[in-house]
Amino acid sequence: MARPGTLPAVFMRGGTSKALMLHRRDVPGDLAAWEPVFLSAMDSPDPFGRQLNGMGGGVSSVSKICVVARSERPDADIDYTFVQVVVREGRIDLSGNCGNMLSAVGPFAVDEGLIAVPDGPARLRIYNTNTRKLIEAGFTVRGGRTVYRGDLAIPGVTGTGAPIRLDFIDPGGATTGQLLPTGAVRQILDVPGLGPIEASLVDAANACVFVRAADLGLAGTELPAALEAVPGLLDRLGRIRRAASMAMGIAPDLEAAARIVHVPFVGIVAPPREAGSLSGEAVRAADIDLTARVISNGVPHQALPLTATLCLAVAARIEGSLVHEAARATDAALRVGMPSGILTADAVVTRDGGVWQGERGSFYRTARPLMRGDVFHDSAPPV
């Protein structure tokens, strides 16, 4: 039994994100009661943008919470709700999924005894309540616990870990109900305060709006700090995001679109190009099929959100989209050059009578528990 003002929690890395992992049984039953508890635990809002007084890390990729429970659905083993805690604003956002933290959900469920699986390869069916989609997670169990040590290295994370395979089943329409929310593979967005810009609006795993780097005066190879330094760029991208949110039916107006920060992601795409990376290693054009940068929660992502990467892989298979236009033609998995190196995602997309359908999207991640204990979520000092 947790003490008043605390929650039992496991702090985990999943892919290139970190989050508090919580049991559904330990959090308030009413979703409306989650916000003050989670904001206090993570230290939001923080006008300094560092979240020093909580578990957050000052950027969206480490200001996250996952709420997990055994599922009562016949087609799922685990229910998972993703909570984005907005760093500088006093609110939480449950509008989308987090693919990186998905890699931690299955292992957490096994290690916490939510579900028992035999030793060897495990495959759990995870129902994401945010997007109402199923994801299958494959990983290894030994002695009744998840195996975390292995040889897989992923860009943006030091060291190696055991591979965790994530398969998104029927990922199209996760946010809006349709793979192509407007019915078009590309269109002209009339962006208030900016004017017309060509974009592809695609919804697979999470909704995304894709634009050409060249149309923004960019090469597409810029690292996050360079993107932030371009005068007015983040404001322009924010305007594009809000216009896309309205066009996709996510928000009814610009004011509502500004409040829904998690989706759509903004993807900036360019053909394969030589680029630097945050580690200092070069990304060679010959080793990638597409160059991409993503704006997540208003700031350039240090790598790529996994759901946005899956959406990129799906969009690259849709003829006529801006992603398909920029990507090298390949039947293999899509290799995306991004700020932390190269990320690979595979997608199966079909077309029936002119209607595009995303059947499956897959990628590999690693995860690791970092600590277990009680997190304080009120203003009372620890005792």
**Would you identify the regions where 5 or more consecutive residues have pLDDT less than 50?**
none
State the secondary-structure class.
alpha+beta
Whole-number mean pLDDT = 95
Radius of gyration: 20 Å
State the order of secondary-structure elements, H for helix, E for strand.
EEHEEEHEEEEEEEHHHEEEHHEEEE
Distance between the termini: 16 Å
DSSP helix count? 7
Shape: globular
Kindly state the number of beta strands: 19
Biggest sheet architecture: 19 strands, mixed
Helix content: 10-25%
Task: Report the portion of residues in β strands.
Answer: 35-45%
Give a nutshell description of this structure.
The protein is α+β, with helices and mostly antiparallel strands. Helices cover 17% and strands 35% of the residues. It has a 19-stranded mixed β-sheet that branches.
Q: Which helices and strands appear, and what pairs or packs with what?
A:
Elements: E1 6-14, E2 17-23, H1 34-42, E3 64-70, E4 78-85, E5 92-93, H2 99-111, E6 120-128, E7 133-142, E8 145-146, E9 164-169, E10 187-191, E11 195-204, E12 206-212, H3 224-229, H4 233-247, H5 254-259, E13 265-270, E14 290-296, E15 299-300, H6 306-316, H7 322-326, E16 334-338, E17 341-352, E18 355-365, E19 367-376
Parallel strand pairs: 2-3, 4-6, 12-13, 14-16
Antiparallel strand pairs: 1-2, 1-19, 3-4, 4-5, 6-7, 7-8, 7-9, 9-18, 10-11, 11-12, 13-14, 14-15, 16-17, 17-18
